[in-house]
What we know:
The structure holds 3 protein chains of 3 kinds.
Chain A: H1 2-20, H2 22-42, E1 50-56, H3 61-72, E2 76-81, H4 84-93, E3 98-102, H5 106-112, E4 115-122, H6 126-146, E5 152-159, H7 166-197, H8 199-204, H9 210-239, H10 248-273, H11 276-294, H12 306-312, H13 316-329, H14 334-358
Parallel strand pairs in A: 1-2, 1-3
Antiparallel strand pairs in A: 3-4
Chain B: H1 2-17, H2 20-40, E1 48-54, H3 59-70, E2 74-79, H4 84-91, E3 97-101, H5 105-110, E4 115-122, H6 126-151, E5 158-165, H7 172-193, H8 196-203, H9 205-211, H10 216-244, H11 254-278, H12 282-298, H13 311-316, H14 321-335, H15 339-366
Parallel strand pairs in B: 1-2, 1-3
Antiparallel strand pairs in B: 3-4
Chain C: E1 12-23, E2 30-41, E3 45-49, H1 56-63, E4 71-76, E5 79-80, H2 84-92, E6 94-97, H3 109-119, H4 127-138, H5 153-164, E7 171-175, H6 183-200, E8 203-208, E9 219-224, E10 227-232, H7 234-238, E11 245-249, H8 252-263, E12 268-274, E13 277-282, E14 290-291, E15 294-295, E16 297-298, H9 303-311, E17 337-346, E18 349-359, E19 364-368, H10 375-382, E20 390-395, H11 405-408, E21 411-414, H12 426-436, H13 441-454, H14 470-482, E22 488-492, H15 500-515, E23 519-524, E24 535-540, E25 543-548, H16 550-556, H17 565-581
Parallel strand pairs in C: 3-8, 3-9, 6-7, 7-8, 19-23, 19-24, 21-22, 22-23
Antiparallel strand pairs in C: 1-2, 1-4, 4-5, 9-10, 11-13, 11-16, 12-13, 14-15, 17-18, 17-20, 24-25
Amino acid sequence: xxxxxxxxGLLRKESLQIxxxxxxxxxxxxxPTVLLLIFGYGVSLDARNVRLAIVVQEPGxxxxxxxxxxxxxxxxxxxxxxxxxxAEAAMDRGDAQAIVWLQSDFARAANAGGAPVGLLxxxxxxxxxxxxxxxxxxxxxxxxxxxxxxxxxxxxxxRFNPSVSSRDYLVPGLIAVIMTLTGAxxxxxxxxxxxxxxxxxxxxxxxxxxREILLAKLLPYxxxxxxxxxxxxxxxxxxFGVVLHGSFWVLTAASALFMLAALGMGLLISSVARNQxxxxxxxxxxxxxxxxxxSGFVFDIASMPRAVQIITHVVAARYFxxxxxxxxxxxxxxxxxxxxxxxxxxxxxxxxxxxxxxxxKRLD
Amino acid sequence: xxxxxxxxLVKELLAVLRDGRSRAVLIGPPLLQLLVFGYAATFDLxxxxxxxxxxxxxxASRELVAHFAGAPAFEVVARLTSDAGIDRxxxxxxxxxxxxxxxxxxxxxxxxxxxxxxxxxxxxxSNTALLIEGYANSIINDFAIGxxxxxxxxxxxxxxxxxxxxxxxxxxxxxIVPGIVALLTQVVTLLVVGLSVAREREAGTFDQLxxxxxxxxxxxxGKGLPGLLIGMIEAxxxxxxxxxxxxxxxxxxxxxxxxxxxxxxxxxTGIGLMISALAATQQQxxxxxxxxxxxxxxxxxxxTPIANMPGWMQTLTLLNPxxxxxxxxxxxxxxxxxxxxxxxxxxxxxxxxxxxxAAAGWLFRKRTI
Amino acid sequence: xxxxxxxAPAGEAVRLVxxxxxxxxxxxxxxxxxxxxxxxxxxxxxxxxxxxxxxxxTLMRLICGLLRPDHGRIEVFGADIAGPRATAAMQARLxxxxxxxxxxxxLTVQENLDLYADLRGLPPDERPGRYGELLHxxxxxxxxxRMAGRLSGGMKQKLGLxxxxxxxxxxxxxxxxxxxxxxxxxxxxxxxIDHLTGTAGMSVLFSxxxxxxxxxxxxxxxxxxxxxxxxxxPEEMTxxxxxxxxxxxxxxxxxxxxxxxxxxxxxxxxxxxxxxxxxxxxxxxxxxPSLxxxxxxxxxxxxEDGFVARLRGDDPPPARHLPADPPAPRExxxxxxxxxxxxxxxxxxxxxxxxxFSVRRGEIFGLLxxxxxxxxxxFRMLCGLxxxxxxxxxxxxFDLRRAAAPARGQIGYMxxxxxxxxxxxxxxxxxxxAAAYGLRGTSLRDRIDWAVGxxxxxxxxxxxxxDLPLGFxxxxxxxxxxxxxxxxxxxxxxTSGVDPLARREFWRRISLLxxxxxxxxxxxxxxxxxxxxxxxxxxxxxxxLAAGSPDAIKKNAGGGDxxxxxxxxxxxxxxxxxxxxx
Lengths: 364, 369, 582
């Protein structure tokens, strides 16, 4: 009875404070949507309009046919050169990302079979280089098939993202990274703020229980965080056109679990630090870069060394990225969702229990 | 004048380094992150789980499978005997690639007709999907050329001979680790300067500085130089680790690299001090630093190329010093670029740095309370 | 130590038994409380008195269960409070107002009250009545919709109290409720407390660094550096001094000099400026009716005399060399600091309104007022840290905001809270400030040696400034401000929180500096310190309410001969309020 009234009083107080403090609203609602907008446009791994230098040392009908394949491709902006030295110079200047080199005996060798076509890519950005290589392979395979076929024809079939557009998988990942930030920042600062302003002391000598204080902190920010989440999903679906294949409710439930874990981590940081500055510093070091690099959002976890893979298990964003990518691109794949959701739930419980254990009703 | 700036510099360094906790924040996390991220941040495929559905069961198909099994990029985790398992394996992420070898594979090969192989790829991570396709294509091509050589038959009219300049093994670590040099240098520099003014404002010592005969420029130098110094030292340590731990080659001149780093740290210092001078409290400074740092990293070309962004956003990145240093670091490390070709990268950072510092100096006095 | 089962004697609110508590770890572990045993009676006001760092806040937090003692035991109304259940039971009977009042500044007065009513479980039907009572008592009835952050210091203090009292507690703990609050509000708070103990029978524990408040308590616990120096009714502390406290009138120009001379004399425990003369505490009853040519009039001892006497352990300080005769009267030349029609706005809020004054060379000039009166804003404008919205100001012929850097070399500045670089050692702080003022080589070393000798900093030279006791911090901050021998000295709240001995030492130095021709501008909210000023202004709500010498201000305020600065201050403030109401 009085416990419920206490909780109600605290909740009302938190909500009023959030409502009157524009920074909390900004962190929860504005920050994720603005970041998602910027990053959604800014982050793409699809190579388009690759500046391709084509060296044709001896023009002929066969060479023309070969070059035509590149001109038709949406991926390339071909520029013709007569000498390999000129093309290499263009690459050094940064004007060409790759060079396709047809030597002077191309027509003759092709008639005999196995004419070598040189492909020279700038390997500095290895990922870009590999993707360009793949595109060139496609054009080449088309040429070979048109001239009587090769030894083996590979029919690629991409499940879930047939256009292989990177935005469709990067945007869900970005949501996870951004919400990690938001969740931790929101709560990391709020408890520390009470310590700093001396109000925590006044709270703690009232009959209120620590779990009531924590709960009252958690609930309003949970609602706020879910609001930010909804805004992000809306942007992803309606602005970036990422199709949600799975069900809305699975997405909501998974987001709720993740939000609990992220807020729980913030509460934990906040309880440990008791000082907004230190809490903020810890939140920054432990959230952004790990979520960016270790969540599988851009860098594939399976390709990391074993030791690093183990480390990724403590990053909550990792599980959420996995769920989001499946729910958005594949649908309700329970074999992916169930274990990841369980991991999120476990993390949420651990963070909240730890926060509860550390935030005692005492100063020492 | 020099003695006063020196006194400020010594004071700043002492303030940062005498406190064990802040010393630990500056030294521990950057090196730890270099190690973890250096290994974690890779676009190279290793041990990608794949499944094989061999409908042919011939010597030729087994040879093809052996090529895949032997490739470090792939790890065969399952062999299927029916169509039914394919989607389940992909959906549950147990396999990212299923190779389906047609029942007439060896017959077609022997009769010199194109033998058919299907590659089913998990497209949830489109980048990995493209890479898997590329890797698979390369392996199949190698097999095809080998097969044509040993069993006769007409090879395709043209074969691709791929060579990568600057990074022959196409190791993305060579691409990422120099990027981490820039990334961590920025984080450390911002940590040192981003809060320094705000902290003194809160403690009241900034007022004390302003009433001394120190001029704006003295305070600016005194506040900026520690960031510069610590940033450069930290950058050197990270470069050393990149060279000798991750074996990234340094092909260009040290001079060109350090000129770039110096200008970069100056620009990061300028921006950091500006944020710091603008903020009334340490918390605001922290949020400001953070709000600059996150987009500057994501929109720098560190993980995803700037060339892929829409035009307006590419224009926006011209304000991001990290964009320039990434080009410089990678060009010097891998391409062996010299100072002459890097001018277009140097001067914008200098401009950003000077503008940031000037704004900070102006804000020192302008900003009150 | 009595066993825990022994029934508590009737009328006992709090009993402390050999209570100890230390903070930090290893070599840095410092005892905040050292074996303190004491009793606070129920239904009475017990004052917890001592300077900053004496252990008052630690003791408060121990009693309300926020900290656990290292050793010893606490009983509240006869029950040991160790263990979570006992602590919770105790907290149900307790009201605690922490420093800074524990208010949510972004909630309104009403919302703050509602929150604490919910937390303390006040039934809804009792609320209207209780709120009405509290709002009436605190005078906040007209402000229920105002944000707590926009209340004045005195109103915040009363709202904090109302929130603590929302469900009448049996034991009320107030941690420094009067810090930074103007004297009128202090007086009102005491009326409320008297009402609570008198009619409601509440037990109150009240901590303060203002020694004059001790006299209003039924009993005091005197804390110094974690030790209990004494306990009992305040009169007991002063009783032994009967016949040893005297006043001697000294005319204004020579008053400070006379005080310094008397303080240095053999057999004088304490000498302070008070009213129109010097107040003296002697080691033993005097044999002659005069001392050093000053006629002695016996006066009643007050609490501060007893406190200082106890701190000095009845041993008078070792005789120091007596200051020479006062220097020739200063020629009243051109003023060094000129302020004309100074106004500063922050948005629509006017922080300083049309302030004018001037300060002559070698003068000690005071800006007196409560927190938020506008004295710090004024001060910051003079130092060039803040531009003025309107008006003219000049320091040594310059506007420091526009003047070239070397002009700032003439001033020394001591910021509020003794801003030092906490992570730097004492020596590094001295070295830095000396270098910042352009000293180098031998002159820098000489000056550091001077500072170390003059301010007794040698034992602390290698330690971090952050870990210094407050008195040391104050000395170090003054040393840093004096490294370059400035001609003008700006001091912002230089004595706040420092113990009375350190404050005496501080004013001795400032008097000497002024005699040597240094101009001193000082802000303070300690009324009695205003007596050390040659001239001062009293500020409230941004405006100057009174200006002149301390004697003139007291006379204008209508006080008699024995009137204190505080009486004058209250009279001035009240006169201004009446004028505004009319």
